[in-house]
Automatic annotation (TrEMBL):
Residues 80-106 are annotated as: Disordered. Residues 80-94 have a biased composition (Basic and acidic residues). It holds the Pfam family DUF1315. This is DUF1315 domain-containing protein. It comes from Photobacterium aphoticum.
Length: 106
């Protein structure tokens, strides 16, 4: 199969499943990936990202095939913006903590 045929056949759902499989080392049904499957899936994911990735995450392949690296400060700003955007709160997010729960809730 050539690259263009592979990328045309790969839907966002297939991309996400392959990405999860590479991250976890197993397919959605629990079958472990062989080293060859992991390598092939990773190459396919990078090719897909190089064609479709509009918002490249830290250390990924941006659209056009360029490697994208984001600094820690850039990532913190993005996470803070996400937190503000989802909560509807315009107060600046506290980047020093992840979550706080009262001790009596456990």
């Amino acid at each position: 199969m050539d690259v263009d045929t592979l990328l045309k056949a790969m839907t966002p759902d297939v991309y996400q499943r392959m990405s999860t499989a590479v991250e976890l080392g197993k397919w959605p049904d629990g079958t472990p990936l062989t080293p060859e499957q992991r390598d092939s899936a990773l190459q396919a994911l990078m090719l897909y990202q190089s064609r479709h990735n509009q918002d490249a995450a830290h250390m990924s392949v941006a659209k056009g095939g360029e490697m994208m690296f984001k600094s820690k400060a850039e990532l913190q700003r993005e996470f803070a913006d996400d937190k503000i955007g989802t909560s509807g709160d315009t107060e600046k997010a506290d980047s020093g903590s992840i979550a706080r729960f009262p001790a009596d809730k456990f």
